[in-house]
Translation initiation factor IF-2
Amino acid sequence: MASSNVAEFAAELQMPTNLLLEILQEAGVQKAGLADVVSETDKARLLHHLRRKHGSNDEGKRTTRYSTLFISYGGCDELIARQINESLKSRGIKTWFFPDDSVPGEKLHRVMHVGVNSYDRVLLVCSRTSLGRSGVLNELERVLEREAREGGGDILLPITIDDFVFSDWKPQNEDVATQVRSRVICRIPDPGTDSIIFEKTMDRLEAMSLYTTSLSRHDSEKARLLSMT
């Protein structure tokens, strides 16, 4: 993951820039403005800070303070989807991955409905083949509907293993592509050929999971306090 400035890094994490500056300061990384460079060392310190603050308890034991992730992918991409799933689970993130978590005999439409509506985030693995699968497109449309119902929150988390999503993808519903492309889309390399970049990308996903959980708890606490007034 190359160096970027504060504004670019905030966009990658889908985080308000003022909040990123605040969290960087908490982590001991001093940045004054949006154009300040965030180095690899800065990002590592931020992740370490988030892990300590939200990922473990006072005894150093892992807790469940991560967002939960439903992994949506095409069957042809199962190998890399499994590698992504295993990496996320090794970091303490609760995921739903079809080969491991589906129940024999359960209807597929119910599996999809429960998954995209019950998990905090939906991790969409984009590729030339997956974005042509009706099941993946159906899950994607349901996620976007959920975002609209919940006031436009960021539930969809798209990543990609090729460049198809950026320009060549032309679904029948053009608005779907527009909504996906309006977000930062992380490129996931094959861990067999570039394990270092793969793990750094997983670091970014972990940081986003920690951040969204922290923000959700902050909002819940604010709502609780407001209800007492």
